[in-house]
Amino acid sequence: MTDQAGSQQESGLTGARPMSTMAAGEPPMADAAVATSPSFNRRRRGVLGGAVLVAVGVTYLLPTLGIPDATSYLFLALGGAFAAAYLTGFSPYVYLVPAAILISFGTGLLIPGWLGLPPDTVAPLFLASLTVGLAAVFVIRPQRRWPLVPAAIFGLVTLAEVFRIADVIPEGLQPLFVPLILIGVGGYLILAPRL
Questions:
Q1: How far apart are CA 32 and CA 29, in angstroms?
Q2: Where are the domains of the chain?
Q3: For burial by CB atoms within 10 Å, which of 70, 75, 133, 171 has the most?
Q4: How far apart are CA 118 and CA 180, in angstroms?
C-alpha cells in the first residue's frame, strides 16, 4: 500500500485516492491544481517539436509545388513554429527571440523577390528586417532590453548600406556578419541566466 502511495506522489498525483478504493481500470484522480499545472498539461508539451517537424515538412513540399526559394520559407516556417510555442505555452521568452529572428530572417530573404527589387537593395532590406524583428522582441517584452543592442548594430549597418556612407563591414567579412550575430544571440539564450 505504501509503495502505491509513494508511486502516486512521484508521478505528481497528489491528493489521489489509494489504489484499493478505485474501481478496476479507473485512473488515479488528481487535485485541480495538479491537473491544470503546465507539467500536467500534455496537450502543450509537444508544440515546439511538432511545429518544427511540420515546418520542415512543408518547406520540403514547396519545391514540388513549384514555389521558388523554398529554403527561404524554412526560416519563416521555423519562426512560426517558435511563435506557436510562445503563444500556446505560458509565453516563455526563450521562444519569442528565435521566433522573431527567424521570421524576420525569412522575410528579409523573400521580400526582394516578392517585390522584384534590384539586387543592391537586398542586403539593406535583409538587415532592416532583422532590425525590425529584434525591435519587435523589445516592444513585446520591454523589460528585456538586450535585443536593442543587436538591433542597433543591424540598424546602423543598414543605414550605412542605404546611404553608402561607409563600408562598415569589410567585404571579406560580410558573409560572416549575420551568422556571427545569430550565433551570438543563440549563445546568449543558451548561457544566460533564466530568461
A1: 9
A2: 2-35, 45-191
A3: 133
A4: 26
What does the alpha-carbon distance between residue 66 and residue 30 come to, in Å, rounded to a whole number? 51
Q: What is the dihedral of CA 41, 47, 49, 54, to 10 degrees?
A: 150
Grid look-up 512560426 returns 80
- d(CA 117, CA 120) in angstroms, rounded, equals 8
pLDDT digits (tens, 9 = 90+) for 23-52: 444 444 444 444 444 444 445 567 788 888
109 neighbors 72 (Cβ within 8 angstroms): yes
Rounded Cα–Cα distance for residues 180 and 191 (Å): 16
Task: Tell me the DSSP string of 130-186.
Answer: HHHHHHHHHHHSTT--TTHHHHHHHHHHHHHHHTT---SS-GGGHHHHHHHHHHHHH
Distance, CA of 132 to CA of 138 (rounded, Å):
10
- CA distance linking residue 44 with residue 84, whole number of Å: 10
Q: Is the pTM of this model over 0.90?
A: no
Closest CA to 134 of 178, 99, 89, 174: 99
Asked if residues 108 and 129 have their Cβ atoms less than 8 Å apart, the reply is yes
State the CB neighbour count (10 A cutoff) for residue 73: 21
What span, in angstroms and rounded, lies between the C-alpha atoms of 102 and 76? 6
